[in-house]
Write a structure and sequence with these properties.
Structural class: mainly alpha
CATH architecture: Up-down Bundle
Number of helices: 5
Largest sheet: none
Number of strands: 0
Radius of gyration: 19 Å
Strand content: under 5%
CATH superfamily: lithium bound rotor ring of v- atpase
Shape: elongated
CATH topology: Four Helix Bundle (Hemerythrin (Met), subunit A)
């Protein structure tokens, strides 16, 4: 296989890591953001103050895009050193990106529930963040174990 094709396939894997993570972040932020807007509207309609903490929930799934970017940079740095490892880099970028994306998506769905609960009760913020943090850990594991595999 020619060097240019190996480099291109490695870069495709690198970009897949951030692309799939960003797709999940978009879906997760969309779900959580919609719930935040609805919860704020309900608070305004009831004459209650709208809790700013809902913005934290709405933005929580964004971090998975950052993890995808980190993995993208690390894969891309390896392209000149190990061009023959392009299958690993391509598959890792796709699979890890999907794992991070699904984590972001599900975190957004859980954050949507947290928005409703926080707006209704005004309590439980740290408990809700704990649940979101557990979901976040899936993406961190996918990124870290991918990085470990690259350097093994």
């Amino acid at each position: 296989m020619e060097q240019e094709l190996m480099v291109a396939l490695t870069k495709a894997g690198a970009f897949s890591a951030i692309a799939f993570a960003a797709i999940g972040s978009g879906l997760g932020c969309g779900a959580a953001g919609a719930a935040a807007v609805g919860a704020w509207k309900k608070c305004y309609a009831q004459g209650k103050p709208a809790p700013f903490q809902l913005a934290v929930f709405a933005g929580a799934p964004l971090s998975q895009t950052i993890y995808g970017m980190i993995l993208m940079f690390i894969i891309n740095m390896q392209v000149q050193e190990k061009p023959e490892a392009w299958p690993l880099f391509l598959i890792m970028g796709v699979i890890a990106g999907i794992a991070m994306g699904v984590s972001a998506w599900m975190q957004g769905r859980a954050a949507a529930g947290a928005c409703v609960a926080q707006a209704e009760t005004g309590e439980g913020f740290t408990n809700y963040l704990t649940a979101l943090g557990i979901i976040e850990t899936v993406a961190i594991f996918a990124m870290v174990f991918g990085i470990v595999l690259i350097f093994m």
